[in-house]
Amino acid sequence: MSKQSEHQQEFSERREKDLLRHIIKTSLNYKLWIAFLILIILIGMYGYYRQLKYGLIVTAMRDYTSWGIYISNFVFFVAISLVGSLFSSILKLNKNEWSKPLTRISEIIAVSAIICAIVIIIVDMGRPDRFFYVIRYLRIQSPIIWDVIIISTYLVISLILLYSSLLPDLALCRDRLTAIPQWKKKLYRMLAINWRNHPNQLDMLQKVTKILAISVLPVAFAIHTVTSWLFATTWRPGWDSTNLGPYFVSGAFMAGAAAIIIAMYFIRKSLHLKAYITEVHFDKMGKLLVLLSLVYLYFNINEYLGPAFKMVGVEGEHIIELFVGKYAPMYWFVQLGGLVLPIVFLLFKGMRRSLPIFIISTFIILGAWFKRFLIVIPSLQHPYLPIQGVDESYLHYNPTWEEWAITLASFAWFLLIITVLIKLFPIIPIQKHEHVSKRHPILNF
Question: Of 235, 247, 166, which is closest to residue 205 (Cα–Cα)?
């Protein structure tokens, strides 16, 4: 889009211009970012090509560690996806007005994360063509089938939630944007269907959104609970626990909230939306993050206190390896750098400003991924019935470059989907259907 055509675009108000400007204008930084993500994806695709050609032998996964960083990534993406239900359901039904500008961001992250979770679980299969056998020879008594069903359901609901919230703004893009390519005009016209902001349409949309907001909540809790059951129903130290369901759910909400804060920071900075994503939003998110982290801290104590107190057999060996063994640096980084210290820092208001809370959230996200690594790998390396006389490679797990390349590519896919959706659609709702006070014209929409 040329600069001349950009200036030809007319807007009826400042808010409309601010929130639609990024759709019309494509910066050099955006193009370089897209090119970087595509490069990472291409490297990952080459790694996956090698995995398809030679089999899973190119990975470090063996009979002991049959689940590697692919499954860690899967659990991480499922965790991040729960942020959609946190904003679209819990905060919306609780009538938290401050969260409205962040709802669409959370829904985009949720959709992107659950898509990547599905992709990475297929990558983990040595024969992806046999994925359809899971559906064809469905065994309802298998927790894997429960996961397939609940993830598919959550994806559908998340897509509908995102689409329904976009409808009024899609119609606005269809009617107002003129300085855009023809393919974009056709896209908005097709997606906006026959939306005219008629009172009957608005009433119907409000009812549908409320139904979806209610229905997504149990599905969101179920998706991570069922994922935890995949571990809990497998006989390994660290997994033989009834605590895994709430443990996974609380950790997912904490990681999701941190992901929202990181997204807020970059969107606010790159799209120049400081008037719409304010320091007040970061402060509120900081308080919410403290609450979610405290809940997760409780379940962490509950998860390790019993086995650490008893130190029985293989469970004891597993705990020793986490506390003082080869995984101790990662374990204590997760507990201190990704959980305890963020709680302490965020208790101070100065740390809930945009830059400090962004840095803190980055550590939380790193800790969340390392935590998923610790959930999967050390447990698999300490089976209750060890195999005798195995090759040395069975006793250790060091991911190969193919695994790292594919894992990084999955994150690149995740960021690419988010970037493209943000580029195509307004990231903050433009249409206002509620009374706006004069005192706080930005925060109350």
Answer: 166
Q: How many CB atoms lie within 10 A of CB 78?
A: 28
One-letter amino acid identity for 78? V
Query: Of 17, 78, 44, nearest to 412 (Cα)?
Result: 44
> Residue 9: pLDDT band by 50, 70, 90 thresholds?
low
Distance CA 426, CA 378 (A): 43
User: Does residue 413 contact residue 39 with C-beta atoms inside 8 Å?
Assistant: no
Its pTM stands at 0.90
Task: Measure CA 303 to chain center.
Answer: 24
Give dist(CA 218, CA 209) in Å, integer.
Answer: 15
* C-alpha span between 122 and 408 (Å, rounded): 16
Report yes or no: 405 and 41 within 8 Å, Cβ to Cβ: no
Sign of the dihedral through C-alpha 352, 354, 356, 359: positive
The pLDDT confidence band at residue 10, using thresholds 50, 70 and 90, is low
Alpha-carbon distances, residue 137 vs 94, 132, 240, 347, 420 (angstroms): 42, 8, 28, 52, 36
Number of H helices, E strands in the chain: 18, 0
Q: How confident is the model at residue 159 (pLDDT cuts 50, 70, 90)?
A: very high
Rounded Cα distance, 73 and 66, in Å: 14
